[in-house]
Amino acid sequence: MNTFYNTEISAPRGLFTEDIVATYLAKILANLIRSDLEKGWHHWTGTHWQLDEAAVTEHVRSACRELAKGGSEDTRKRLGRMSFINNVKRLLTTDPLLRAKSSQWDKDPLLIACPDGRTIDLRSGQWRLSKPEDMITKLVAVAPTEEEHCPTWKRFVGQVSKEDADFAAFLKRLAGYCLTGLTNEQAITFIYGPGGNGKSVFIRTLLGIMGDHAKAASMSTFTAKKNDAHPEDIANLVGIRLVTASETEEGQEWASARLKELSGGDAISTRHLYGHRFTYIPIFKLVFAGNHAPNLRTVDQAMRRRLIVLPFNYVPPALDPHLEQTLRDEWSGILRWIINGCLEWQKERLQVPTSLRAATDDYLSVQDAFAEWFEERCELATNDTYTGSRELFRSWQSFAEGRGERAGTFSSFAERMQRQVGKGPEQIKRLGRKGYRGVRLK
What we know:
The protein is of the alpha/beta class. 39% of the residues lie in helices and 17% in strands. The chain has three domains: 18-102, no CATH class; 151-352, P-loop containing nucleotide triphosphate hydrolases (Rossmann fold); 366-441, Arc Repressor Mutant, subunit A (Orthogonal Bundle), CATH 1.10.10. It is built from 15 helices and 18 strands. The model has no long low-confidence stretch (mean pLDDT 89). GO terms for molecular function: ATP binding; hydrolase activity.
């Protein structure tokens, strides 16, 4: 008999009707199966609850077979028929002992379950045996070591932070915060820098270790576009603790309203493709990475409070093709490093270091500078007015250099100019040269 059966319940006697058998099985299988009318049947694996109707069917079949032992041949045949088993399972679907609401799963934001049958309480960093009543449906990829045994990872973090102890400590707290189901920091993190400097390695390592708790999404979900992505993108992130996106392109613009909505801690409305609309409260932290920082149309207080820019400027003398595999071998030690980072975060919060705050301020000042340039140097005019794009770009370059800002490329200027003027002035060609009708320099 399955070790998770409640063996203290006496088996029924007499006629085994579907209703009698269902009532009995609900009692003995209460720690093994759960019926969620929204998501489907779950079964307890010994480490976590898993969505798996086939496994539940097998549990019901096995329990019916066990119950029929010692009975008549007719009883054994009847309890072994799939029609009988399916009818019993149908009755179990609505049994109060087995019912679970979607809101009951993964309720504790400071618990993580490991594949070795242990559950870590992130309040203390200590472990205990996993148990069904925790209602956990997700696993991290590995179990942690007792100590932070991850020398390659620590050396890597030191390199990408350019041996800035405050920067490295922040990365540790950030990773620990991402492991939780809490969002009280309301932070949006963007890691930028040239290729081959560790951005992707850092993110992929966190994604791998966090297992079911983390997911990589498309950058298009979080950047502005003419035809907004279907909300199914967001519907797929229910219950996820870390969401990452990479591969930014020059000239992209953040979908600011969406980012603020997703990081605000309030319920959002979404739906799956062809599905009914539903609401949920996001618990994921947003961590982005790219070679180019997307633009902000407006820099308001909400974005200033949320955005954290992390410059990964380290360029290794030579790329190590085996680095990620070496780090993979250290995942258990890195998980302990992350757990300790969570403990540090609970004591200190994120506490963005001065160097990182300066990088964020520099980024935001550039975003503000473009709007300021347009206001100071340009004006809207009649439709018969034309100003060449290169002429406007030279004006912006002069303004930016005078402010000590980077002007960017001509192509990125064209993108930002188009967003700045909106649906007013029109970009046209005159004598083979691009320019704007309805705007002129002062």
